[in-house]
Amino acid sequence: MRSGLAGLSAFLLFALCVQLGAAHAQKSGFGDFGLPTLPGAKLVEVEATYEIEQDSKVGKVHVVATIEDGWHMYSVTQPDGGPLKTQIDTSSDFIELTGPFVPDHAPERKFEDVWPDLPIEEHHGRLTWSAPLKLTKDVDPKNAPISVEIEGQVCKADGSCIPISEKIEATFSGYYEGKAVVETLRVKGTHADWSATLEPATVAPGGAAVIKLRAQTDPGYHVYQFVPGEAEPKFRTLIVATAKAGLRFGVPTTAAETESADSGGEEPAIFHKGPVEWMIPLSVPETAGEGEHPIAIQVAFMTCNDSSCDIPSGVELSGTVMVRSEAKDETPQAMSVASVDFKEIVSQPNLSDWIDGDKADAKLTLSQRAAGNGLEWWMVFAAIAGGFILNFMPCVLPVIGLKLMSFVNQAGSSHARVVTLNLTYVAGILAVMIVLAAVNISFKLAGDAFGWGQQFQDIRFQVPMAVLVFAMALSFLGVWEIPIPGFATSSKSGELLEKEGLSGAFFKGVLTTVLATPCSGPFLGTLFGLTLTLSVGSILLLYMLVGIGLGVPYLALCVSPGFIKMMPKPGAWMETLKQVLAFPLLMTVVFFITMIHPDYRIATLILLIVVWFACWLIGRVPAYAEARRIRAAWATGIVTSLLGAVIGFGYFGPTKHELPWIPYNEALLAQYRNEGKTVMIEFTARWCLVCQTNMKLAIDRPNVADLVSENKVVPLLADWSDRGEEIFKKIQELDSLSIPLLAIYPPEPDAEPIILRDLITESQLLDALKQAGPSAPKVKLTSVNTAK
């Protein structure tokens, strides 16, 4: 028994360490698993589309975020060591991103006391991120959405943040005409030709390039010198980088000679007479992702002669920096030039913030990251008060039952036992706090940010916690007995477990703290936002003070245990109370299910039912049975639960399809048949268990995908989950009234389809595909309007 309790306690602490460490790894590598949509998602509305260049295989995917007023998100290029940056990823079988996501306007950059010497990049309102793509397969984009995931946090000015996780589909928005590269441009009504080159166009991470911006003025005309700042450029040339794609821009310089003239003011007007070339240095961070990095600069200028000036005008010069680990191509790239409204350039905010100063390049050493400020008195008070308030937050509701049972068990005990149990309970609280502090410190030393309750964003933490709380609820209902005092239902088992009161108290303290972490409560949001400014020792002390605040009620009982004596004596009434308290635990399981991403909910529910069965198996063996029977029951229950996890998440969780499925409609089928394509239609539904079995074991398989690709077969998916009329008519046309049903149409337009019904095997499907034959050769796929 004692080993069973110790195992449960160790499991919880070990799971917390592992899941937080895994969350750290995921933050660095952006794992493949889905994350939950949390309440913060309501503060940001996200939508996505993609477009393809006409008669081309390239295009762009756009992600639009509309942020609620008073809130902000951080940029995709937010430097490490500060707030959590936004991350966007796509998954698709028919496209490949060829560069990073870039916002349509630069973020607001500022420096705060919380992160000294670190630029903070915030986005407000509405913005669009775009990334270049190329098609890797021949598909009709009208019926092929792209899955997009966006991760990050939305924050208020006071420092409180809510993590967000959105998984949406980018739908096809249409074709666009490719733009021809204009290498030299003269704006109408001016007297200068503008051009620029990027040298080199291919750069390795950590490397550098330069933009050479040229103004070729007509004889007798000049342009003014570049002067950064916010004032209207009456007698200056203004240069602004409007798209940086995570690259760092230096100050424009020129070797062109200058002259001065009377400007009619206090300062003379300084200009370059004749052609001028500015050099704008670029540096590529070592962390930059490989691929296309689109950049753009805008220039506001006037061309003048000795007697008059042309109308103020503007140009935009755009190009692409190709980042590759082995950059060998030193060929310069001509940038494309276009005319831009002068007022559009000068009306931009922060006209000089695009230049990255020394602060942007600051890299802290390990010892510098470990150093920091000490705790101030207000922080000590806020930490204790915030921890105490956690006792009354909704997140702690599930363990109210544990606390009540603990108080009842202590009623009538000696003062010494009350003190011992409560101190042990507080020790469990502090144990979790030490773990959380250690994780926070590791993030700080790695240059990342860790937030209170961040582990609740991770599916690998959510599912084990849901299982643990569900198992506790089953114990309260008498399905089985967790070997902890207060859980036992029989008097005999209670007597056997009476000696393990200290372990039970410690476990309850651990559980209370783990379940409290989603609730920041007053004070804690600001406190944990300051941890990057604190020293390692101060961070550890801060977490310990929060733990002491959470344990204040129990420490108070050590000083004045009189309250315990007012509780009723243990008796049969506790059984009813225990069963009633099981229902708040079950509601907590519902809370966890709502956090888990929809792609994983069915797998989680399957696992919970299997755990229910495993607990029932264990509960059939009483706690006072001989050790051999108890060990056998526990082993059977554990193995059963592991099998449930493997089956649930292996076969009913999200999977990457081997086949490039296209949603079915009749017009699309007619198009492909007219083109001489071999078409395979799988009729399925979410409620059809045999259909799902066919998909997993016979259809969506590597061997089938290879043959489909080799024979250029078009796979259409007819999802009949909502019992749509169009699909039902097609099923009837194929002489069926139900599913599973799979139809393969040979390339001949008049050929009868090959029909496979009910449960099928992979070999049957391969034989049917071979019988149908490959698509007719040299048939180009064209789009068709399938709208009804």
Description:
This protein is of the alpha+beta class and 788 residues long. Helix content is 36%, strand content 23%. It has 21 helices and 30 strands. The strands form five sheets. Strands 1, 2, 3, 4, 5, 6, 7, 8, 9, 10 and 11 form an eleven-stranded mixed sheet that branches. Strands 12, 14, 17, 18, 21 and 24 form a six-stranded antiparallel sheet that branches. A hairpin with a 4-residue loop joins strand 1 (44-53) and strand 2. The model is unreliable at 1-41, 358-364, 484-500 and 779-788 (pLDDT under 50).
Ends distance: 68 Å
Arithmetic mean of pLDDT: 77
What gyration radius follows from the Cα positions, in whole Å?
A: 33 Å
Considering DSSP H and I runs of 4 or more, what fraction of the residues is helical?
25-40%
Structural class of the secondary structure composition?
A: alpha+beta
What's the story with the biggest beta sheet?
A: 11 strands, mixed
Shape: flat
Number of strands: 30
Number of helices: 21
Helices, strands, pairings?
Layout: H1 2-29, E1 44-53, E2 58-67, E3 71-74, E4 87-91, E5 95-97, E6 102-103, E7 108-111, E8 119-123, E9 126-135, E10 146-156, E11 161-176, E12 192-199, E13 202-203, E14 208-217, E15 222-224, E16 238-243, E17 248-249, E18 253-254, E19 259-261, E20 269-273, E21 276-283, E22 291-301, E23 313-323, E24 333-334, E25 336-340, H2 342-346, H3 366-370, H4 377-389, H5 400-410, H6 415-446, H7 459-476, H8 491-497, H9 501-516, H10 524-529, H11 536-550, H12 552-559, H13 562-565, H14 573-595, H15 598-619, H16 627-651, E26 662-663, H17 666-674, E27 679-684, H18 689-699, H19 702-710, E28 714-719, H20 725-733, E29 741-745, E30 754-757, H21 762-772
